Amino acid sequence: MSSSPKAHLSSLQRLAQVLSYYVSRTDSHISRINRLISTTSTLDTTLLTVTYTLHLLHALLKRVTTLRLSIAAKSLDNLLVQLPYVLPPSSTFFATLTPSPTSRLFRLTSSTAALAALIDDVRIFLRLGGLLSIYTWGASVYRSPPQDRILRSITWGQVGACALFQYLENGAYLGSKGVFAFGNEKVSKWYVWSSRFWMAHVVLEFGRLARQWSINREEIGSKDLGSEKQGGEIDHGQILVRREEKDREWWKQVYVNAAWFPVTVHYGSESGLVGEAQLALLGLVAGVLGIRDAWRAIG
Questions:
Q1: Tell me, what's the pLDDT at 41?
Q2: In the chain, N or C terminus with fewer CB closer than 10 Å?
Q3: What is the structure's pLDDT at 73?
Q4: What parts of the chain have a pLDDT lower than 70?
């Protein structure tokens, strides 16, 4: 028994609606991604998230490779134990196990590392003009400094730390590309010191956040007291919403800064501090929180 033409038409209409919905959603997402990477700040956040995701994937793939080699070594050892007549009793057997360059796992691991390194390079290149942005930031602080004396001192310290970080990173990057006559030792030294000034900025940011928490509480309390003195009704619901919004933003900045701190210590150390997987997870905390806010802002 064949289905009726109306049933066929109804199925086609539903299919068209589903396709239309997914095309619309895809168009919306692509449009938002385009806006996300159209400005330098959001582009850097996007690249940061992508590169740390690749670093995490590379670390996991390396562990899988190591595990496979370990299993292969145990299998070989068991085979030799079971075949004692293969070698004389006094002989010693040495074997070096390496992943095959033609294996899919090896190619994927190498490609992931290469792409992560390329994006890292692009991010540093895009920051070459960062001194201009820092100058603009410093000029705005000079024209309109924070009213709080502690915040004003911290902000100027951050401007100086960021300027030194950017100057040293620019020099190290250009030296590594042969633009400046830097040796490898000098390039490494400048990179390490640039990271130390980045770490100084992060430490100062903890101080700024601590002071900002105190100021936020004082402002909310003074507004409540002002309304009470004027005889007006205090909208406790509105006060609670305002406090929650400020607290949410403050905690987000704390999480981001706390994630960056061990990263700066790692890069500011001559021998490093954490492994690639741990470094990637810390970077992803900052990247995901940043890209989430940017994604919402352009929605």
A1: 67
A2: N
A3: 67
A4: 1-13, 15-18, 20-25, 27-29, 31-41, 72-102, 220-236, 298-299
Give the model's pLDDT for residue 152: 96
Residue 183: per-residue pLDDT: 93
Query: Given this model, what pLDDT does residue 243 score?
Result: 80
Report which of 259, 262, 283, 287 is spatially closest to residue 272, judged by C-alpha positions: 262
Query: What are 260's two structure tokens?
Result: 């960056």
Q: From 60, 116, 53, select the one nearest 281 (Cα to Cα).
A: 53
Sign of CA dihedral 112, 115, 121, 124: negative
pLDDT in tens, 179-194: 999 999 999 999 999 9
pLDDT confidence of residue 54: 96
Instruction: Please report, as a single letter, which amino acid is at residue 264.
Output: T
Contact 236, 291 (CB under 8 A): no
Residue type, 286: A
Q: How far is Cα 131 from Cα 99, in angstroms, rounded to an integer?
A: 44
89 phi, psi to nearest 5 deg: -60, -30
HEC string of the chain equals CCCCHHHHHHHHHHHHHHHHHHHHHHHHHHHHHHHHCCCHHHHHHHHHHHHHHHHHHHHHHHHHHHHHHHHHHHHHHHHHHHCCCCCCCCCCCCCCCCCCCCCHHHHHHHHHHHHHHHHHHHHHHHCCCHHHHHHHHHHHHHHCCCCCHHHHHHHHHHHHHHHHHHHHHHHHHHHHCCCCCCCHHHHHHHHHHHHHHHHHHHHHHHHHHHHHHHHHHHHHHHHHHHHHHCCCCCCHHHHHHHHHHHHHHHHHHHHHHHHHHHHHHHHCCCCCCCCHHHHHHHHHHHHHHHHHHHHHHCC
